[in-house]
Amino acid sequence: MSRLKAKALTFLELIIAMLLAAVILLAIHNISFYTNFHVLTADRRAKTQNEAVFCLEHMSKELARAIGNEKINVGQIVDITGDVNISAFIDAYPGDGQRGSADYWIKYSFNRGERNLTYCGNCGADKNCAVCGSSWEKISDKVYDFNANPTDNFISLNITACYDPKEKKFLCGTPDNPTANLTTRIKMPQVSVN
After folding, report:
1. What is the pLDDT of residue 58?
2. Residue 130 — pLDDT band, cuts 50, 70, 90?
3. HSE-up of 142 (CA within 13 Å, CB side)?
4. pTM higher than 0.85
């Protein structure tokens, strides 16, 4: 009778095999975690930047139609809470060269507490826009900070958007809660500087 050679794993071989399997599993998990993290943050950065661009384009389109005097008919008001309000007088019939009863005010309002930018497209003859009531349109709820500075027949706008501007889980500016800071200058060709 011949003895069969016993083949068995030693304890040391078993530990080495388990370590190799753990290294392979950790490498796969790390690659997965890394790609998911960067895909997620890239998506959030893109959404945040799109919100900021949309706000600036909306304001560029509307404020470029302003008429009148920049000191009287285009203005920025910052109230005690830090909210920013921009009002502009719009000619209902551009090119007619006359102020008429159909001309109206528009208003943008940034609420610092709620972190949103709203717009009233027709305030009628009321510069303070009390008549807009429930017809305020929310432009964005991702605005973290907003500043405007009307000078001559230009208005400089600076908007900082954040993926979660209320900072529920992460602070703005972190990879999990990215920000986009955009600045533009809008020319208002029908606004007098005198």
Report:
1. 95
2. confident
3. 23
4. no
Burial grade of 134 (CB within 10 A; 0-12, 13-18, 19 or more)? exposed
Q: What is the rounded radius of gyration, in angstroms, for the C-alpha atoms of the chain?
A: 29
Give the torsion sign (CA, 88, 89, 94, 96). Answer: negative
Please count the structural domains in the chain.
1
Sequential DSSP letters for the chain: -PPPPP----HHHHHHHHHHHHHHHHHHHHHHHHHHHHHHHHHHHHHHHHHHHHHHHHHHHHHTTB-EETTTTEEEEE-TT--EEEEEEE-SSTTS-S--TT-EEEEEEEETTTTEEEEES--TT-TT-TT-GGG-EEEES-EEEEEEEEETTEEEEEEEEESSTT-SSS-TTBTTB-EEEEEEEEE-TTEE--
Is 37 a member of any domain? Answer: no
What pLDDT sits at residue 6?
58
Residue 17, in any domain of the structure: no
Tell me the mean pLDDT in the region 157-162. Answer: 94
The residue segments making up the domain with residue 83 are: 42-192
Mean pLDDT of the chain: 85
Q: What's residue 1's pLDDT?
A: 47
